[in-house]
Design a protein that fits this description.
Elements: H1 30-34, E1 38-40, H2 43-46, E2 54-56, H3 66-87, H4 90-96, E3 104-112, H5 122-127, E4 135-136, H6 154-172, H7 175-178, H8 184-187, H9 195-203, H10 213-216, E5 225-244, E6 247-262, E7 272-284, H11 286-291, E8 295-304, E9 332-333, E10 346-348
Parallel strand pairs: 3-8, 3-10, 9-10
Antiparallel strand pairs: 1-2, 4-5, 5-6, 6-7, 7-8
Length: 356
């Protein structure tokens, strides 16, 4: 017989599995109890009349559901993809890969045949020179009547002409550019693909037909020369033409006449005239028209009176009133004429000087 403290040898009736509880594997830990949606009222709460035995508990706040998190991640990925495609669009990539022709430039000094004439009054010099009827400043760079081409609209042709005019005005008439103080007004109009050549021209000037600052703009050495009159005389033409279905070209041919004095000289010192003829060829594709910039392809400059012995690569060094050239060129060249000079150094025709 079993003792009173010993368990019975037989399992209780009705207990399956040899006395093993079928719910023994279920563990009612604290987290399980807290997560229950139904909670039994306490004894005190059940003493109230008609109180139910149990009540529903509000659902626990578990933060954002998995679906919401996935949706947020998908939106973020889509937004990042859109931004990336916008920055690296095929249109921008093709524009960055375009081939831009480097600027080819020629600067021809024109040496006077005798003494440079001068007068105290710049107006008198202008009145007795071929520039007597020239307009003043930007008025001497009028826009021509424009017409649409086969592949470019009226507005696109006007944009090309206007941008070319701005470049001419900035590079030939701005006092801060003429005195070597700034190049930014000119640089801002140059297409991005030509900026390396532009910057190298000013950081490392060279008389190689590619890197002369005077091929990009007109400028004087402020230590030697200053403007005697800021009303610069100008005359010239602008013409636009379509070269193919994707390119517009603008040809500019202008003559600029500057009244100059030595730096530090007073108003009573004789002034002289200095003439610069610039033939510029600009090219525009649709990217340039959209960004309001240009490609300068050809720059052909005649300037005088200059001495052929002076280096005109970095800046122009005009001969002033009463001075003569140390060396002349092979023939007289008139910058007011329409013919193009071919010599690397020419002689300034007597007819191009004021009669004083």
């Amino acid at each position: 017989m079993a003792g009173p403290g010993d368990p019975p040898e037989q399992t209780p009736e009705g207990t399956p599995g040899g006395g093993e509880d079928e719910y023994r594997s279920v563990v009612f830990d604290e987290s399980f109890v807290r997560a229950a949606r139904i909670q039994e009222y306490s004894a005190q709460e059940r003493m109230a009349d008609h109180a139910p035995a149990v009540r529903r508990r509000p659902p626990l706040r578990r933060g954002l559901s998995r679906q919401v998190l996935i949706l947020v991640m998908l939106i973020a990925v889509a937004f990042g993809t859109a931004v990336y495609m916008g920055v690296r669009s095929p249109y921008q990539s093709s524009a960055m890969r375009r081939s831009v022709e480097p600027l080819r430039m020629t600067v021809i000094p024109l040496a006077p045949l005798g003494v440079v004439p001068g007068a105290a009054d710049p107006e008198s010099l202008y009145a007795h020179s071929p520039a007597a009827q020239f307009r003043i400043g930007a008025e001497g760079v009028p826009l021509p009547a424009s017409r649409r081409t086969a592949h470019f609209s009226d507005s696109q042709v006007v944009t090309a002409l206007t941008t070319a005019k701005e470049y001419i005005v900035h590079s030939s008439l701005y006092p801060e550019v003429l005195t070597r103080q700034q190049v930014r007004p000119v640089r801002s109009l140059v297409a991005a693909d030509q900026l390396d050549q532009f910057d190298e021209s000013f950081s490392h000037p060279a008389a190689d037909g590619r890197h002369a600052p005077t091929g990009w703009l007109v400028r004087f050495d402020p230590a030697r020369t200053r403007l005697a009159d800021d009303r610069i005389r100008v005359q010239g033409t602008l013409q636009a033409a379509e070269t193919d279905s994707s390119t517009l070209e603008v040809t500019a041919d202008h003559t600029f006449v500057y009244a100059l004095r030595p730096t530090g000289a007073d108003a009573g010192t004789a002034a002289s005239l200095f003439t610069v003829r610039r033939e510029l060829h600009f090219r525009f594709d649709r990217t340039d028209l959209r960004t309001h910039q240009l490609q300068l392809i050809v720059s052909y400059v005649q300037a005088g009176p200059l001495s052929c012995a002076e280096d005109s690569t970095d800046h122009l060094v005009p001969l002033l009133a009463g001075q003569t050239a140390k060396a002349g060129g092979p023939a007289g060249t008139d910058p007011y004429a329409t013919g193009a000079a071919t010599a690397l150094c020419g002689s300034l025709a007597t007819s191009a000087q004021p009669k004083v």
